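Open question from group meeting: does this chain pack into something compact, or does most of it stay loose? Before anyone orders reagents, we agreed to write out a predicted structure and look at it together. Recording both the input and the output here so the notebook holds the full record.
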Amino acid sequence: MIETSSRQRMLVLAICCMSLLIVSLDNTVLNVALPTMRTELDASVAGMQWTIDAYTLVLASLLMLMGSTADRIGRRKVFVTGLVLFTAGSVLCSLAPGLEWLIAFRMVQAVGGAMLNPVAMSIITNTFTDPAQRARAIGVWGAVAGISMAAGPLIGGLLVDSVGWRSIFWVNLPVGLLALVLTLRHIPESRAARPRRPDPVGQVLIMVLLGCVTYGIIEAPSAGWSSPVIVGCVLVSVVALVGLLVYEPRREEPLIDFRFFRSVPFSGATVIAVSAFASMAGFLFLNTLYLQDVRNLDALNAGLYMLPMAAMTLVIAPLSGRLVGSRGPRLPLLIAGSAMGASGLLFAVFRGETSTPLLFTGYVLFGIGFGMVNAPVTNTAVSGMPRSQAGVAAAIASTSRQTGSTLGVAVVGAVLAAGMADGRDFTEAAVPAWWIITLCGALVLVLGAASTGAWALRTADRTARALEEPASPVAEVGAPRA
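Structure tokens returned:
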């Protein structure tokens, strides 16, 4: 009986990881295809930013809504719907007749993706209830991100060079369909005992805030920071932020429960996730363009060049999960911040991209850092929260990641575009962007140290007690379907 239960847990983990694989793989595959797509679609740097950010922006805007919705109406139901939408969106992207259609279909993909990651993490949290087992499971989850980084550039490069950029979206079809079949057969329905009520006002405010910030950053280099459109974006963003801070605490069941952020480890993990994924997205964006536009590598060779970074992420992520399970999140976060910051510094100060040995050293360092950061962030986000709110807590962590990815591409792309508009070559124009990536690594290091001390842990205990709900029967993973 115990063996059967263990096998069931591992099968659930495998299915959830398949959903993460296609969502993560989609962006890493797309990054390698950007130069080819830019040429064929006659797009600008801003147009390429939008093919990535339209996806991550919608994803970040909807993650918390989908997490709470899954807790309310059923995690399996939302997960299945997400697989169908994401797979269908991939087919539409492969058929897109132009850049505008591609961006629109990427948004369809993102709606499906928003139903996958937080819901999958919620399912994992309710399946692996032992803290050490959960940390190891999250380490496996992080390793899947490494697999996507390792396989994405290679698969993308091979497909772009042999078939064309449209074929990169075909990769999602077999994985998505297999995950759909396995989910219908092996994952039982579960939901929270006391589901949270919908919060449409909070959802609209989040979408307006993220949308205006992203649009303003991407379009400012061409429109000008003083243009009416950009100034309007800034004003609307401020109004939306103030609206969230005023409106949400007044609701009995808000979309964003600001009590979560009374926990210093949770707040630290949220900011660390934004910083780490902004750094990662900016790092991939810069290197993809540099390798193909400056070094004139084809898509496949560009993917091979980035393999050391991806391979280190793949190797380090499971180790990070074991470290979190045995020693807590402090050591992995300190290693992550140090390695990512050192990698950025190598490019910012020593122009690492101009020397192949330094380039590969930077890739290895960044892979180590990014491999270390995922498990402690995710584990901290969900481990101190009531299981009935696992979907919301996991969604906040996922939202932080996607917000970071969105801002990373937007800010780094804007800085690069502004530098090249001033007449500088790619290497010189990228220096401020590398300093931003270095700063993100330093922020991970400082917050990793500050949010894992004794005082911080006491705030997490107080927050967990304040959020505790009276025990009541609830259908969880493995229970009979409701």
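Observations to bring back to the group:
Residues 470-482 have pLDDT under 50 and may be disordered.
The CA atoms of residues 260 and 374 lie 19 Å apart.
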